[in-house]
Amino acid sequence: MAEPISLASGLLTLATFAFQSSITLYNTIQSFQNHPERVRSLAAELEALQGVLRTLNDTLSTTTDIDVSALTLPLLRCGKACGEFEEELRKCSSRSSSSRTSFRDWAKLKYMGDGIDDFRQLLAGYKSTISIALTDANLRKSSVTAESLQGYKRLIKTATDDLEAHLGSIDEKLETIFARTATESETAELRHMQEDRLSTQQCLQICAQLSDHISQIQLRPTQRSRGSSAESAGVPERIAGEAMQDCKTRLNQATERLEGYMHDVIDRMMTQSKASMAEGEFANLERLREEWSTARQCMDICFNADYNLKKNISIIDNQAIGDETVQFLVSTSEKTIHGKNRGDGFRIRQVGGHLSDESLQQMSRDIAVISSVRSEVLSQEGDTPPGTEDAVGDADRSDFQQRHGRGMKLASKSDLGAGLRTV
């Protein structure tokens, strides 16, 4: 690191810092000849991370109308983690009895008490978070398929689960360090702060569990909306859904306040513990504190991306089989629609686009009236759709149906006029 990098740096500077740090670490790893499977996996993860960071750099260099400022802390921590891991690698290789190019003691390499696999998962978390933030910023302006949106939803879910596990691991390490320090120092104030930290952590877990429970309730379709092809749900369901989403928003706000309080408690505990800790142990504690903050920020990015996806995007896939089918692919709000209307049958009607509630209801009534008039005309002329017998002879009927369908007889002008007057 030629110059110190801090949170005060610009976003493009931080993105460049993370990108260059990942390249330097990759080149250092490649400079050794021996690469066990876990090392090869780490190198592959670094390449994937570089691809995402390159995209972010290009976006920040050419675009000014997207907001990815939430990535400030994750980018800083990503760059520092790569630099710190490289430093540990160089130290470990210098102590090895093997030559530098044939370094074999990969299993001894540790970062924040963890091995290579854990560090690779750490990088994977940064990569996923950056991808989610970029997609979230560009989603409403880009043309994507329903399939890619489903993949995006799976990415958010996987990243959230991994971040929760990572936070749990960090909390266990912090608890171990602070519990030992509190016992050794015999300071009542430090023991009190440790209890305060554990209490705050428990409150954070309660908020997370309640938010997850609300999400599960929202995912269960009601009997009224199950199987519906239109985006608009019933009024009661909509009111309940808005209330639950408001509850999740309030829980998120409470979580932010608890996290801020947790930061303050950890800072005070670090100040109290510094005198009784070795320099290397305290440096590791500082890394854990920074990583805890970063993981929390990454989880906020995932939460906001999931909320924006549900709020702003409707994913609809209509598929109907049968005659006289009506399909709606309609948004009655400002949601962006990603979906398909697919039908297999005779005289399928399809409606798509953005409509007001009133327009959608009127269109539904109009289609119902037209269908009723059509059915009445056909019933007067017999159950079998007429017209095919008049259009072709018996010998050519099969060929006609294969090429053009079974056909129908057009209504007379008087019947059609009566139907239009009824509408």
Helices and strands in order, then pairings?
Blueprint: H1 11-30, H2 37-62, H3 72-95, H4 116-138, H5 146-185, H6 188-219, H7 235-273, H8 279-312, E1 313-321, E2 326-331, E3 336-344, E4 349-354, H9 357-380, H10 388-391, H11 397-404, H12 413-422
Parallel strand pairs: 1-3, 2-4
Helix pairs in contact: 1-2, 1-3, 2-4, 3-4, 4-5, 4-8, 5-6, 5-8, 6-7, 7-8, 9-12
Protein architecture, described:
Residues 376-423 are annotated as: Disordered. This is Azaphilone pigments biosynthesis cluster protein L N-terminal domain-containing protein. This protein is mainly α and 423 residues long. Among the domains are: 1-142; 317-422, no CATH class. The chain contains 12 helices and 4 strands. Strands 1-3 form a two-stranded parallel ribbon. Strands 2-4 form a two-stranded parallel sheet. α2 packs parallel to α4, α4 (116-138) crosses α5 (146-185) and α9 (357-380) packs antiparallel against α12 (413-422). The longest helix is centred in the middle third of the chain and has 40 residues, at 146-185.
Jot down its keywords.
12 helices; mainly alpha; 4 strands; 423 residues; 7% strand; two-stranded parallel sheet; two-stranded parallel ribbon; HeLo_sf
Question: From N to C, what is the helix and strand string?
Answer: HHHHHHHHEEEEHHHH
SS-based structural class? mainly alpha
Provide the gyration radius in Å. 31 Å
Strand content bin: 5-15%
Sheet having the most strands: 2 strands, parallel
Please report the total strand number as a whole number. Answer: 4
Organism: Clohesyomyces aquaticus
InterPro entries: HeLo_sf, PigL_N
Pfam family, one: PigL_N
Keywords: Signal
